[in-house]
Amino acid sequence: MGSKIQMQDWPYLKKYQKENSKLPALKSGQKRIVFMGDSITEFWSALCPEFFAGKPYINRGISGQTSPQMLIRFRADVIALKPTIVVLLAGANDIAGNTGPSTLEMITDNIFSMAELAKAHQIKVILCSVLPAYDFHWKPGSFPAEKIVTLNTMIKKYSDANEILYLDYYSALVDERKGLKAAYADDGVHPNKAGYEVMNSLAEKAIEKVLSKK
User: According to its UniProt record, what is one Pfam family this protein matches (predicted)?
Assistant: First the structure.
C-alpha cells in the first residue's frame, strides 16, 4: 500500500478505473452483483476464480483498505456500476489501525453510510460479518478477537433493524480461540481455498435469498 499512486490517491480510485469504464452495459434482466471489501474480497477471485466465472459478479476488493477508503470510492466502484446487490465486507483493517486509530462506532458509521448510499440508489445490500482473527500478523499484539465480536453484533443489529440481510461468515469459520480455523487460513487472517469454499456457499445462498425477495 506504499506506492506513489496510492499515496496520492488515498482511496485508490485509480485501481478499478479502467475496468469500470470497460464494463459492458447490463443486458435486459441481468442482475449484477458487486463485492466490495478489502484483501479478503480482492484475493477471492485469485483463489476461487470458479466462484466468479460465468456470473455477473464484480470484485471490487482492495487489499489493506479501511472503511473510510471504501466509502470514498463507493460511488465509483459500486453505485456507478448499477448492480442489483452489493455484498459489503469491511472493518478488519480499521480494527488493525491501517489508516489510523478508529473506534467501532467510526467503523459502523462508514459501513452504514455505504449501506444507506446503496439503498438510496435502489441497490440491495448484504452486510457481511467480519471474519474471525485471533491476531493480525502485520500488527502483532493487537488482540482483535473481542472487537470483531462486538463489531459483528453492531452490524447484525443494524441489519435486522433495517431489513438488510446479514451474511454470517464468522460462525462458520471461527475456532475455540475466536480466531480463524487453521483449516481455513494459512496466516490466521486471510482465507485459503478451503475457507473461500465455505464463503462461496454462504454468499450464494445470501444472494439467492435477496434476489428472491420482491
Answer: Lipase_GDSL_2
pTM for the model stands at 0.94
Whole domain around residue 181: which residue ranges?
Answer: 30-212
* Residue 85 CB neighbours (<10 A): 21
Q: Does any domain span residue 8?
A: no
Measured torsion, CA atoms of residues 123, 133, 49, 202, in degrees rounded to the nearest 10: -50
The string of DSSP letters for 10-77 reads TT-TTTTHHHHHHPPPPPTT---EEEEESHHHHHHHHH-HHHHTTSSEEEEE-TT--HHHHHHHHHHH
Report how many domains make up the chain: 1
Distance CA 190, CA 187 (A): 6
Answer yes or no: is 81 within a domain.
yes
Residue 125 lies in a domain: yes
The CATH number of residue 183's host domain is 3.40.50.1110
| pLDDT value of position 7 | 64
pLDDT at 188: 83
For residue 192, the one-letter residue type is N
**CA–CA distance from 200 to each of 4, 115, 149, 197, 204 (Å)?**
34, 22, 22, 5, 6
